Amino acid sequence: MASIQTVLRNKPNARSLYPIAIRITKDRKTSYIFTGQYIDKMEWNEQKGLVKKSHPNALSINQLIFSKLSQANKRLLNAESDREYQSVATIKTSIVKKERFDFFSAVKIQLRRLEERGQFHQRDVVKQRMAKFKAFAKADKLHFNEITLDLLKRFEAYLKNDRGLAYRTTVNYMIAIRTIYNIAIGEKWAERNHYPFGRGGYTIKFLESQKIGLTVEEVKLLEKTEIVTPAQQHALNIWLISFYFAGIRIGDVMQLKWSDFIDNRLRYRMGKNQKLVSLKIPEKVKPILAHYKDIAVDDFVFEELRMVDPKDAKTLRTRIKTVTRTCNRHLKNIADDLRINKNLSMHIARHSFGNISGSKIPIQMLQKLYRHSSVTTTIMYQSNFMQDDVDDALDRVVNFQ
């Protein structure tokens, strides 16, 4: 016999509030259905499984809890009336399915999860893409079995022909839909037999991306230039530090602190995957750091993030985006003045390091410098720049007398 109880889960969101959930227990196994409500732990009555009266919205939240419990108990009785054995996961599925859980309901939950994890940029991107999909489908609810190969192909054609989006951008929209669908299958909100992707369904094909970096001569031009304004020099300094440290991302560059530099090494934790990184300080970096050390007022190397709370992920992301746009604008002007016919931006610093390293450095060492988890990732990335063998082979064939 299964049991149902309301509980407060122990994993808080970004605002340190805890989710209220309905716990289903059977055969010492548990599963949870979330109510969508979050409260402070001090405002939860664990014995009663209700919100304390001191909470300003206690009455409405407790009414919601009673309603959810009543619905869950009814559906549990129906599920258990079946003579066949049902696991706790099956019971949860039967309860959730009766609520006619649809694709856009899954989108809302995923957006909330991204926000709780502080992934505000990804949340905004997914929200924008799913809004376009919802407008195209012309439906407030779209059940998973309604997402067919035909619908996906028509949406692809709409994005390409009507919206004029590039191929890679269109692919990103389809990946977003597939990701939500995969999450729904994993959560038992959708059944795999309706899955519209993969073999026999909609196949997502990736075009090889072209990565272009600066050459040694072009980087030397940047190092020696004197025809820049103070603002342009600042942007160039940030770019050079990124390049000298094997393409460190601008979000990490802007958050560098003097306390990260220990024993002639840079030691920091990457913002993208929280990996610890330790790199020797190249000689070319030292004069740049010395310039900023002379004007330092606190532990930050650069001033742009000094007034931003590092725990406020949303504000931090917005500020870094603003700084990146400003730097890219200055870098473009520098490139124009120096007649560098490439899109000089913060991101190209990483490509430039790859282009110049080419096949000179063993791939395992490049993996460490790039901070890649897998050497396969490094091989695929570096294949954009390792052209010597191909060029030599071509010459051997065509350079005959």
TrEMBL record:
One of its GO terms (molecular function) is DNA binding. GO terms for biological process: DNA integration; DNA recombination. SUPFAM superfamilies: DNA breaking-rejoining enzymes. Residues 209-395 form the Tyr recombinase domain. The keyword Transmembrane does not apply. InterPro entries: Arm-DNA-bind_5 (IPR035386), DNA_brk_join_enz (IPR011010), Integrase-like_cat_sf (IPR013762), Integrase_catalytic (IPR002104), Integrase_recombinase_N (IPR010998), SAM-like_dom (IPR025269), Tyrosine_recombinase_XerCD (IPR050090). It comes from the Bacteria. Keywords: DNA recombination, DNA-binding. PANTHER family: PHAGE INTEGRASE-RELATED, PROPHAGE INTEGRASE INTD-RELATED. Belongs to the 'phage' integrase family. This is Site-specific recombinase XerD. It comes from Gelidibacter sediminis.
